[in-house]
Amino acid sequence: MEFNGDILTIDMSISMEEVAEFEEFVRPRIDYIETIEVEEEGALRSSALISLLVSLKRTKPELKIPFLEKGVLVSQKYGTIHWICHD
Amino acid sequence: MTKQEQVKAIFIEEAGEIIEKLDIDIIRFEENCGDFNLLNEIFRGVHTLKGNANAFGFTRLGEFVHHFEDVLDHYRNTQESIEDHNLELFVGSVDVIKEVMNCELDAIATLPQSYDGCLEKIKNLISIKKNKPSFTQEPQESAAELKDLALEFGLSCVEQQQNSIERSIKDAQAKQSEGLSVYKIDLTLDSDCYKRGFDYLLFLNMLAQKALLLESFFNMEGIVEIESFKSGENYIGKVSVVVLTSLSRSEADEFFEFLFDHEYEINLITPPVVEVMEAVVKPSLEVAKAAADSGASNSMSSKSTIRIDTFKLDELFDSVGELVIAQNFIAQNDKIRSIDDESINRTIETLSKITKRIQDRVMSLRMVAIKDTFDKMKRVVRDTSKKTLKEVHLIVQGEDTEIDKTMIDSLSDPLIHIIRNAIDHGLESDADERIRVGKNTNGTVTLKAFHKSGNIVISVSDDGRGINKERVLAKAIERGVISGDENLSDSQIFSLIMQPGFSTAEAISDLSGRGVGLDVVKTSIEKLRGKIEIDSKEGEGTTFSMVLPLTLAIIDGMLVRTAGEIYIIPTLSVVESFRPEKEIVHVFKEKGEFVSLRGQYIPVMRLSDVFNLDAAKRIEPWEGILVCVETEGGRIAILVDELVGRQQVVIKTLGKTLAMLKEISGGAILGNGDIALILNVDELRPLVEVAHV
Question: What is the pLDDT of residue B138?
Fold first, then answer.
């Protein structure tokens, strides 16, 4: 996890425990974060990460999360995953 | 036998059948590697074998077939063309499976040499294939685009997702081929699923390993804002998965066996409704025709079979044999025949017909088409052709000919030997030699089965160089098999090559030419109450014909009477029978009686001498009948008082004491209840051997 200015960068392959840590980190700082970048190296390890990102987007609609906005993740490990999270 | 042992015995039998079929199918596939239905069939066999092997703790076999299954699965799903060296790997893999199975059955700790190498190649192949992206194709439309369109058309989030799922199903159906199914799986994991160790991704990963196409749709509507969010809880209400896979419904179910029933729902997507409607409106006759035309897959569903222990069949067969004897007794009993009552006569006649029908049907239960055995020979031809570097074209005829199951099992080894012999020694060494004598460069081996005079003939012909009679004779004299003074017919000369230790091959190969094969082949066929005939023309080719009885339990016999006793001579051995003129019967000092027939002196054999029958009833040859029979040592003429008739007799084994009489191969109960002995003509021969001129 890397916080550079108002851009928070996280790794897609974080574990369930790391998702919990990320949640603890981001909760009090959501107002200061403009963009969350997700590094797509490695494989997604927990669906809780997508849930958390959607939750953050729902809490702060102007938050930019390019990964989430793509709405799709193509992976050898899981096939093609789609999600639609607009309100 | 315990229940567990019984189940294991069934597994071993089934596994043997599967492996036998794999051996045949893999060669058929090699010949036509575009036949993906056949590849599917091979895959199913390997899959069943894997499950059974693991269930019975045959882990080494299980591991091998597991990886082999993966590689087959890849090719059948992608329908990618298979490279020649990989086809060779498949054929080799089936060989390894056969060998490992034997190791498992005999509890041999050492694995076959080829095991590790072959497994490594398979693993490498899987690794190469899996690194190529297959089902992870880029979606045709991005979610963002879909979202925009959805907004434009005013669709709700749920409606959008529903549309996407339907599109995905259509995509999957478009790629669907035989053996593949499309499922829509809805996962609705409870909020505590993460704590229970489950994640949607876990199931997607498992499915991905067995899928040709996998798309999932996460419904994020239930995600709460961050104030209420706890990352240890699952807020994803539903994930719909569309998968194109070879998995059966029950196999797919297994993936989710640790979930609660309400957490998953699997729906098999049936083909589009319109196609079903078309099928329904077809006139019934057309539907029936379509079903008939659609071949094996449909016929499989309409055929019902059960597995019966052959021991039970043998018992049934014996009982029917008794029934035939009892029926014959009634039909031929003088007292019953003298009853002047039409209804009784009609009843006896009906009983006779029904008995015959039952006998035929029970006989047919033991009969199986020789096709499977012939199919196995394709592999033998292929392997021998590669080893000898000779191009061979195999022609198979009459593969639907049926033969007794007991005989089928004993036929493979003789056939393998004869075929190898035909390719290794029968066919010319190289194409140039063939061209020089005006033949095609490719040698031809013809495998044929047909009925002839109540027997079954299985022949192996080659269009090679034929047997050189002079060389055979010279070799036979050199080995002391014959003295050189004999006046032998062509067939007798050719038969010499089946003598023990006889081989004219100049170079001994690992295929044939060791001089130990053909005599073993001959013995094997004789054990089946059959014989081998060889016909050859130099420069044109050779034919080995195995003449076999229809069944081992019944023989066609010629009933003869000598000194008041009835004997049965197997009709298969009988060449001719005649009453000789006094002039053609000769007696040679210390050599015995001979009959001169068409320029050949044939020794006369008196059954009364062999079995020490009443000397007072001794007759002269011209007073009786000579039955000329073919034996392994040449022709002999058996002198009998009279011919009684010809009939099918049920062979009964004799007790231990009588079994010592080599001249007798068994007994039979005749219609009148009398017992007749069946002659073993080959064992009659040594008694007159000294008299042979």
Answer: 45
pLDDT tens string B29-62: 888 888 888 888 888 888 888 877 777 778 888 8
Write out chain B residues lying below 8 Å of A71, CB-based. Answer: 142-144, 146-147
SS3 sequence, A73-84? EEECCCEEEEEE
Contact B216 A82 (CB under 8 A): yes
| 3-state DSSP percent of chain B in helix, strand and coil, to 5 | 50, 20, 30
Chain B residues 366-405 with a CB less than 8 Å from chain A: none
Query: Is B255 in the A-facing interface, judged by CB distances under 8 Å?
Result: no
Q: Which residues in chain A have Cβ-Cβ distances shorter than 8 Å to B218?
A: 47, 50, 81-83
Mutate: best of B165, B194, B201, B225, partner A, most A CBs <10 A: B201
Q: How far off is chain B from A46, nearest CA to CA, in Å? A: 7
Domain ranges for chain A: 2-82
Domain B310-368, CATH: 1.10.287
- Domains in chain B: boundaries: 3-131, 143-270, 310-368, 370-549, 554-691
* CATH superfamily of the B3-131 domain: HPT domain (1.20.120.160)
Mean pLDDT of B178-205: 89
Topology given in CATH for the domain delimited by B370-549: Heat Shock Protein 90 (3.30.565)
The pLDDT tens digits of the residues spanning B404-438 come to 887 887 888 889 889 998 998 889 888 888 888 88
Q: Does domain B143-270 have CATH number 3.30.70.1110?
A: yes
Q: 3-class SS at B83?
A: coil
The answer to whether B161 contacts chain A (CB < 8 Å) is yes
State residue B453's pLDDT score. Answer: 64
**CATH level 3 topology of B554-691:** OB fold (Dihydrolipoamide Acetyltransferase, E2P) (2.40.50)
Helix axis angle for B143-152 and B157-175, nearest 10°, is 130
Max mean pLDDT among A48-52, B118-122, B131-135, B294-298 falls in A48-52
Q: What is the ipTM of this complex?
A: 0.96
